[in-house]
Amino acid sequence: VEVKIEVVIPEKERSKEEMSPNGKASPLIYKVNGTARHYHLEEHPIASNPYHNPKDVVEASVCHVKDLENGQMREVDLGCGKALLIKESGEFHAVGHKCPHYGAPLVKGVLSKGRVRCPWHGACFNIGTGDIEDFPGLDSLPRFQVKIEKEKVYIRASKQALQTQRRTKMMAKCISLSNYNLSSTNVLIIGAGAAGLVCAETLRQEGFSDRIVMCTMDRHLPYDRPKLSKSMDSHPEQIALRPKEFFCTYDIEVLTEMQVAAVDVKSKIAVFKDGFKMEYNKLLIATGNMPKTLSCKGKEMENVFNIRTPEDANRVVKLATSKNVVIVGASFLGMEVAAYLAERAHSVSLVELEHVPFKKFFGERVGRAVMKMFENNRVKFYMQTEVSELREQEGKLKEVVLKSGKVLRADVCVVGVGAVPATGFLKQSGINIDSKGFIVVNKMMQTNIPGVFAAGDAVTFPLALRNNKKVNVPHWQMAHMHGRIAALNMLAHGTEISTVPYLWTAMFGKSIRYAGHGEGFDDVVIQGDLDELKFVAFYTKSDEVVAVASINYDPIVSKVAEVLAAGRTIRKRDVDAMVFLSFRTGDMSWLTGKGS
Fold first, then answer.
1. Considering the entire predicted model, what is its pTM?
2. Packing angle between helix 332-341 and helix 310-320, nearest 10 degrees?
3. How far is it, in rounded angstroms, from Cα 478 to Cα 494?
4. Domains by residue range for the chain, with CATH
5. pLDDT 10s digits, 563-589
6. Is 349 helix (H, G, I), strand (E, B) or coil?
């Protein structure tokens, strides 16, 4: 038997790909208070189908058909690139071998019920289509057709697809943008983060061809916000989620440096800070959070930062090099910034009110292990205290005074003491806001107002994993999923959210992966070695596992995420009896119910 793989584009998608782009349009202009604002719809030719060129195709023999058992994956090399060959339920499938998000090797991921989950950050891809089904990331995998002929496996694929390892799903365009009133739109998206962008892209992927406008207070197009604290010297263009040409090609308008001041849900009008008004038919609110600031004397001083933009992060790195840095708050942002600056700054001091970092999130034992790693990398902790004053010299920060009486030398101060939902502009709108300022939505991301949806860090929603408890999950992955669900329900699909929260943090070359929702956990079952930073921690509430975290134990977090996504329950006794043996043998079939 022979297995061949070749790239095939369905007729429906091929016809879409070969469609000519919109003709070149004049810049859209409207005037507010005498100021002209321009929105360019630049012509961006779509590349011809790469698979029509025979010279672009490569074919190679990679293995025998019996080399793969059901449920197995294998990376196969075609000379100019690799593919992921999969056998499940007696059928072969082939897709790109790297996760389009950050390039993780999917062969080390988790295969379950027709999809493969990334071992690093939990993105999921359908093995039959390559389509992305859970996040983070925007692109899908290239799919290669599999044919069985003889006893060897051959793969025939496009060199371009093998090299790019990603595929952007076909999208619709605006039918006739020139006919629109510039002060009205069918869909208005407030916020240009992951939730807003995924919402816009999903609408286009589903064939929506009316006007879409995104607005943001930021000066940049949507970018990879987690990198602000993980890769602080990245420039905006390096972390852009999509290039400028993408928005032009698919007629997604982005109004930068535009702040919405109020929403009139009865008239369906958004009022901007500069007085401009825009009517909408459907509205998505995805404004995210705003960082909390210090309340002490000197908080407005120069060289005191809340990292909110790429410019903030870049400036902190520049000012901190070979200088003294004080970070207030052992939050994810605070800890990631401390890790990034440890090798660059002369000294890094971290001030925290709790006695252990991450105690509420990861538990005390894991928190202490992480704290020890930081101390081994020259980060000095000042725990169970707060900042009482920031002192200056010649207008610039010089010292940070703690309530404990300790005085720290400081040339730069980064504040990471949490955030609050950016929903103040909705107070008089009639949209349901809870006591903490979060927008309340249902499983379809709908607010109490018809036609108004909300997504991302600023919402609470029913989490199926925790018996539909209303929760706030400010994770990058979750924002993506919120945006997709909101878009589908704008189109009346009736789709309910069903996903397992997944997050990661990276510090000193170590990645902590986490899946589930551990709020209120009452015990932590740890297997592995905390001192060696090679462990997995299961967070339990009563007898049930509600979350899992690990360092250097991939793909256990993705494996557990798949179990939880399937609606199965993991009991504490399962962890105690089987997990350590599973790690030693490499057999984790018990998690899927196949083991003994």
1. 0.89
2. 40
3. 19
4. 57-164 (2.102.10.10), 170-292+420-500 (3.50.50.60), 304-417 (3.50.50.60), 509-592 (3.30.390.30)
5. 999 999 999 988 865 565 455 555 555
6. strand
